[in-house]
Amino acid sequence: MEETIGVTSAAQIPKQRGEALPDTAVRYAEERHWDVFPGAWLESVEGTWRCSCGEAACPAPGAHPARDDWATQATGSATVARRMWAKQPNASILLPTGRTFDAIDVPETAGFLALARMERMELTLGPVTCTPDRRMHFFVLPGAAAKVPDLLRKLGWPPAALDLVTLGEGSYVAAPPTRFGASGAVQWACRPTAANRWLPDAEEIISPLSYACGRESRRK
């Protein structure tokens, strides 16, 4: 089904809590030292918002790479990021994984269950995003993609049995306040703060995540 967003008289893409995409991208590079790169964006076409890629049935409108060489385009320089978003201020903010962090991708229901368990266990969390397609991304130290399958096996879970994916080198996540077409904007479930600048290792949080995903799979 075609994803659209109603257009206001000013034809402006809504921003989450007043955050401007270019300023936020620069802040991620400057304050968190994350590599960033501009992705696709939403365009006004005959009274609706559509993805700049031109695909009417785009699965992630306005929230995917705009070019094939995105990995080489990504930068950790605030100056370069400012220059890139100056060319297209409405471009989504995408963060390559496998560099300063990997991300563990789980269903939203499992993610919130895991968050509650982690709080009770007093675990130190990194940033966590919640996407409009009901997924959550837990930021962990790089290298998680290689070790998570073995960690799951040690916990008694065949990796294929869980809806849990680790994003490492060659992948990316969309960062707040990037919008997914009409579905809404990516949000922080756990915002980046000074307290979570140092990311956890995947081994520290994989047990509550796998438990939550296991419960989720048994419900289906």
Automatic annotation (TrEMBL):
The protein, known as: DNA primase
Pfam families linked to this entry: Prim-Pol (PF09250)
Domain DNA primase/polymerase bifunctional N-terminal residues, every copy: 25-206
Species this chain originates from: Streptomyces typhae
